[in-house]
Design goal:
Elements (H helix, E strand, L loop, with lengths): L8 E10 L4 E8 L5 E8 L3 E6 L6 E8 L4 E5 L2 E3 L6 H13 L1 E13 L8 E12 L12 E6 L1 H10 L6 H10 L4
Length: 182
């Protein structure tokens, strides 16, 4: 059961940074209990993610270096929703750019907030099946260094439970949203 208390009152808001992919705001709020304070928030347009499954039942992941963590991670293909796109359009484009595969069948698996403690970003999740390898795939973005990796669902689950920290939260969450359909 959710708490039905009224929302905090916004007293003032400041934009600290506006970048290419996100902005950073600081809001001064009064909570329903009277406490006032500053809350920081990253504003993000959202991301779309595909759980791509090959005709052989393998999951396609991308191996890429993540600068904030200073390590490579395995992730499902994903990308930022552009202002002119719907989430479904974004992920169809990103799947082709990042993997060289085209999905012929798509299923919307829902959305979830990525890190609501400091960001308003939602991840929109889609299952992509009936994949075809493209003869002339689009170029990867110049700021991406991606390698494609294939896993069976069982292998991915073993990796999730291994404690090796090689996967990000959106990949783990999306796997479990897709699992009933695999």
């Amino acid at each position: 059961m959710f708490n039905n208390d009224p929302s905090p009152q916004l007293l003032k808001e400041r934009l600290h940074y506006a970048g290419r992919k996100f902005s950073f705001e600081v809001s001064y709020l009064r909570l329903p209990n009277g406490v006032e304070g500053e809350w920081e928030c990253i504003r993000h347009p959202g991301g779309s993610l595909a759980v791509p499954v090959t005709p052989e039942g393998k999951l396609i992941l991308v191996d890429q270096y993540r600068i904030p963590l200073k390590q490579r991670l395995l992730e499902f293909p994903a990308g930022t929703v552009e202002a002119y796109e719907e989430p479904a359009e974004t992920i169809k484009r990103e799947l082709e750019e990042e993997t060289g595969y085209h999905g012929n069948k798509w299923q919307d698996l829902g959305k979830f907030p990525l890190a609501p403690g400091y960001s308003d970003e939602y991840i929109y999740v889609f299952l992509a099946t009936e994949l075809e390898k493209l003869e002339n795939p689009p170029e990867q973005d110049e700021d991406e260094d991606i390698t494609i990796v294939l896993y069976t669902p069982e292998e991915l689950e073993q990796l999730i439970h291994s404690g090796e920290n090689k996967l990000d939260a959106k990949t783990i969450t999306s796997y479990y949203l897709a699992r009933p359909f695999l």
